[in-house]
């Protein structure tokens, strides 16, 4: 029985090694991951009994995904298996300035996009659970995935769970207007919103000023966004991640958190990017873990940022950091070799 | 202007290295290939100006396929490009006795399965061409692909081309009855049929005796099959490939050819399998090249078998052999290191 | 709660790629495995809820081992963690005739060799369990490991489990006489013995005739060994695996099983060796799975041999086969590519 | 029929992975490339029908080079093949500060160094062509290569082509005085000169001031160099590339262009170096493509710099960028992951 | 007969490629190295006849270590071989900010930790030698290793050698107090001490001020430390290395040297880190080589820093630089590609 | 001071992994080796102090070769270094039936082909030496290499060495008639000839019957060849290796030795080929080592064959076997995993 339940798609990720383009590739590194999958892994690594719910094709690719989750201690017993459909894929190309990293999705027709609300017994899934997390990717996959997401959120609230939602707007899956129309009605079931200033503007048409410079961040504008969000949707907590893209291979990483009418701001971590995919997911997972562990708000957001800062230094979508490492980083960190 | 035109799908092939299962994979080797694509490459390597026609999504995966064809000198200027759909994939797992190699297709919704007959100007494509080749995979992809295949065969005959057709039955794409219903009407436009005894039985319900032992071959039965095929469909030439699966990593390889009422039989080559995918395609390409080069029937089938025997010793779906190597093998071959 | 519990060491295995010697290596492939670990994985892949009990150092190497078990669905919640000691390693060198594959152990001082009987609550571990499996490697690790093994077997019998024991003599861990003195007293708690003719002779001084030719097997002699074992130790079942080393890269694989006074003999599978480590463990796991699934004796041993024959074709110590594949192989198998 | 024809050597490039020295290498990554080859590829990727003329040994190494060109759509039908001589090689060692990257040439005796003017029918080659490009590497290879280069330039002008010439001084091939003596007489046939301030000083003894700091660039000095060059040799256009070596792995990249008596200056791109070989060639190819596409001077040089800035982020000597990417970068670029 | 003799442990180093964690690894890159081993290699590459003394298990891992030393021209004829014990290992994880690189030792019970003073005939070893070097790692391995180190230092002085000692405190091997108690008595036999401010404080309780900021260095404080050391232990020379950890992948590197009552300070090199392990060892080796070559103090320390700055740009523990490269870097260096 | 001195070329070998053709390669595995180099390594591994003499270009490729020799304990202090010329290369393509392995040489202009007799002080080289070995490859490289080989053989005899010569005919270096004319005069200085029946026929026009079937060997014919050779050239010993090419990946390996008028014949070893290059060189090295160790003729040739049979199972040109392994194989061998 899991404390945390997450729901969403996981894909097989294929990426050419050594900064080659996909067009140049003679081999592809294989990883597994997906927004809510990554959140479950992050929380599990921090000691939270976690479960991930999805729908998967019963073939070796689907098994890879489940094996990856189980290896990290994530419960997959509520995954819905099908003989049909397919496992979603995405191709990830690592860039270096002035070439940004980029993603080619090949996820159309995936098993989870065909999920029907009736296929998951949410009551059973949420028995004993304390927290439910999903994101704006899941409802974007199809009408029935939207319907299922909505049902899940409702059921989670009924089961007494705290609910969190990462807005995660994906322009390749739906338009900004579609995203708004579909998601606004669900926000009533959401306690904690994780997002970026950019996604908020696109989906909820809420913005915080001039904003938008990827290389320098205006915290005041971000705070205004958080306040507007909290006001409009009655979120208990709004978390906005702050990423500065100094260059493709060099970022900074921080977050602000508005909760109980109070702002918490974290230190800014300098990041030498190895793999930035899933950074936000690790933050969500770290935050949930800290809260489930009874930590206070200031600690929780700082821990979440430290834990996810580390995530940028490992290959793959999900975190391989430990709680102890994140705590050491919160306490100042160390760049010398540890021996 | 190409002497040989082929038409069909090519896919990106992803295979785990070192005999690992797909489920075990942490990286996948990437190759490109497909039945008719492989035939065009084989003929091009033997010196035939060759072109390959298909429909592809305009993304890095589609470009990989075209780059592979062009690298081998195959003309791709008649490929139809689309922004939509997807590039077909397949996962190939290399086996060792008692585990057979196996394939997982992920080709549903590929660009060529959405091809419409109107998208290719066959008259233009066949201008100056001497030979057209396609296979039973193409019409299996969709109703419109079947329609396009049929149109292509008809147009090829009208343009004065010799036509060849590899029966290539794929049970994962259609049933035996569907394959029969769809293909029998097209056989009137086919001059040369390449097939195996097994596929003939499944698609045309023609068999040659008890048959069926994968480890020992009954040539008489195979000859009977060839004769029945020639009689029923008025093929000018019927080629049946003879593969003995001594073990997963050890095969023998030969063929019989019935043409002008006469049988030609080739020596049996012992094969240490490196990669057996595309063996039949290389045979077809080698045969077409020999005929376009004016070689006699006995030479053509022996060359085709030697050329394609070599193909089993390279990684990838298509041939990297040379005409000279195949001729040396026809003349007896050599297993000593050549230095 | 697991139906099957196994107990023993798992190690990190490091092997040079591409048949290089350890002395030549510039990189080493990393796998995890160990006799009883492999048995748990094999049974889990056949659908048996399985748990593996061991003692591990809490560092990244220990985590790799547990991650591997969990990925396969094996429960590791009873593993004893320690901050001290070390994780056992072994170096595996793949050979080709006339060079045999070979192993260098670096397992001295491993965490499990320091295990104390008091560290495992066997009563709790066996709650609800139906079968317990261990092997002759575990008691060879140290005096306290022997003591713990003995306690485990006793506790398993008390909990009503069927117990199985793979004799697995390792000359690098103890002498033949030590192995005999230590293990004979424990045999009273064993229901099913898995072994080879060779190990039986060394440990129990029981032999079946001239025997000993690695390339040709004398089944009669093996049957005599089984009968003597059953008679002496009152085993319910004796399984003897029959491996012919035709060459380093080519083996045959079969087994005989004596149970209820009756002999069951399996077909002999031709094996093209990719990785022969863990073949016997997969057989044990397959056999246990079949018996727990209520299969009859003839089926169980044939399934076990088919399942473990497949295991020789994957890299790594433990099985990646599926029940369905093993059943297909029992029904005759197929060496053609499956597409 | 190609719009752009280039002429020069291409080599097989062998480079140790992961920043190892050549002396440390156990494997070498293989690429193909060469100054004029890279220019042809760059232009072809921008949509220009391009051809590359050279002389190659007919062995697998020579075929690799031609396969690489064809894969990118470059016409190689005018390559002169020989059974003798050899294919030039070079070993590339990737550095990191304070160790610069470095090159070991093994190109003596290559097929193109033995080329004779009579071996290429330039009239036929330039039929329909609009632009000819070569560089200072080709005449440095041998006396006959110089003679052939000169003949080619003359023939190109006679055929009505625009001609461009990259000065590309290679001290390992000839002395500064030899380079001057050989090349000055050919400059009368050159319309567009691509060069660096450093090479100009060495070959033509033209300098623009104090100059020479690799880490900070003095644009005024560079402009003076361009003006002197244009004045002395009557070039229609002079392009000088401006590279600041902030560190081995961090450069900036820009250019100035003097044409029609007017200077065009580009923005300076920050570059995280993956592979800086061929940067200048991509610039030349991008510039030629823009001009052949009818773009104005300001656009052409800015496009060329953007297109070649991207080239530093791919492994290999030649570009894998697209026109669309370069245009996006001209419009401001993006360092966020694109998904 | 070697001019330089070093004494200490070398280990097999196993590191996951591409910034993966050990816990993520599917393969490990294998290198060999160790403090005094690396010093011998560095000096040998600078032209000094060098020998390395140690104790090793006679298995493939021990042979790898000796093969590595011999490949670099280091004499290993005084290595003590044993059939027992084991070869020490360490696992190295490469980090990127904010994750530091880190090391997991698995060296307990290694052959050298079991060395007895009587096993090495130091008189014979030092015959004709001019310099002896060891470090604070060796005596930390065991009581008998400490005893042997002490005997070696004494014998070296008796044989007329200059002796150098790298303090190299390893907290995973002993406490600060143990290190002090064990090493202070040996310092009377040491002529040259190499150390860092940090180690000095921990072992000898000598500090130079506030100190301790890893990102900015206070040279004055470091000078004070050197003076206190020289005063207390009568060292002829004290070398303190100055590393600024700008980030995990970006450091600066310099040193100060106090000798003959005079300070020598080197320029600060900017370093793009490929592999920082062994940087200090290369410095020691470079310094010894320069002194044995008769160079003056200013030259020696500057050469040593340049030589070891380069070492950070190669994979592996020991240097692959050449004397010529280091001299070129002393003269200003070059970050442009060298071709 | 070495007991064995060998003289000849070593090259860098580049081979595509995984049975790819050179034309398919994206990376090449790098090894070092050469006939006489391999002999020195083989003998050194059997405990013989060995030295290898050659001429090498002083660049990283030349250093790789010397590092490889030194790693195996081979003395390289008599290698002649030059700043000019180049290091010979060869490309090796691994085959599988029906494709033979093959070699592309790129060795023209190598440093050793430019060697002059005056560059080696043979008197000094042979001081204290007991055996000299060279082969028919060295004199084939150039006129001056022939002259130097001849001088070396003479000097070796004068120094009292036993001399051995591996006929090793290379058709890509010279014609059969050139080989005969050049080598017959040198045979007076040769004590031991190693050869194959095939090379003897080509170079000395001596044959032993019908012969020539690569798959079945006629020992009688081979004995006749040995007798004719001994009679004509007064060799003390003639060794003929017997290789049956059952297939590309399966050989048998044996030898006959005629010495003192008596024939010694070895058992035939079944070989699963991993890398057959250098098999004969390991045999020569093993034989020399056994004789220098005072072993009798029967033992020596059997040991040599066993030692070199093992060599076929390692990647690379030279042996990584040990004396102990070869002795174990002589005693019957073992194909079971050794653990």
What would you say this structure looks like, in words?
The structure is a homohexamer of 339-residue chains. Chain A has a single domain, classed as Ribokinase (UDP-N-acetylmuramoyl-L-alanine:D-glutamate ligase, 3-Layer(aba) Sandwich). The first copy, chain A, has 339 residues and is an alpha/beta fold. Chain A has 10 helices and 15 strands. In chain A, α8 (279-292) runs antiparallel to α9. The model of chain A has no long low-confidence stretch (mean pLDDT 95). In chain A, the strands form 3 sheets. In chain A, strands 1, 4, 9, 10, 11, 12, 13, 14 and 15 form a 9-stranded mixed β-sheet that branches. Chain A has a 4-stranded mixed β-sheet with strand order 3-2-7-8. In chain A, 62% of the residues are buried. Helices cover 33% and strands 23% of the residues of chain A. The A-B interface holds A 14, 17, 21-23, 25-30, 59-61, 63-64, 67, 86-87, 89, 91, 93, 104, 106, 108-109 and B 14, 17, 21-23, 25-30, 59-61, 63-64, 67, 86-87, 89, 91, 93, 104, 106, 108-109.
